[in-house]
Write a structure and sequence with these properties.
InterPro entries: YjdM, YjdM_C, YjdM_N. It comes from Streptomyces gamaensis. This is Zinc ribbon domain-containing protein YjdM. Belongs to the YjdM family. The chain is mainly β and 119 residues long. It has one helix and eleven strands, in the order βββαββββββββ.
């Protein structure tokens, strides 16, 4: 009896398999639980909703905190973890960069919502 597993949420591969309590994708190496897959599918239904690294919903004008140190091309120090960014704008940017902002000492740039936390 053949069991059908959902496709990989990262790369959409159909070759997923079960390993203990996890589902695994052999193409990209992503591992997830079946419960998370259902929650991710429900989250994908909320189009246009941008969430931070902990799952809080972000909106225009929010203040966020950078959660990990980021390298900035052409700048020797980068953006340190804990840097506050005020008055963000949500955009549909390039390569997952969905926050448009100005950071003191760096100027205007785009950030990914996965590297910030709502303050």
């Amino acid at each position: 009896m053949s069991e059908t597993f959902p496709p990989c949420p990262e790369c959409s591969s159909t070759y997923t398999y079960e390993m203990g309590a996890l589902l695994v994708c052999p193409e990209c190496g992503h591992e997830w639980t079946p419960e998370n897959a259902a929650a991710d599918a429900a989250g994908a239904a909320e189009e246009g909703v941008v969430r931070d690294s902990v799952g809080n919903v972000l909106s225009d004008g929010d203040t966020v905190t950078v959660v990990k140190t980021l390298k900035v091309k052409g700048h020797p120090t980068g953006i340190k973890a804990g840097t506050k960014v005020r008055n963000i704008r949500l955009v549909s940017g390039v390569a997952g960069h969905d926050i448009d902002c100005k950071i003191e000492g760096f100027g205007a740039m785009q950030l990914k919502s996965s590297v910030v936390k709502k303050a």
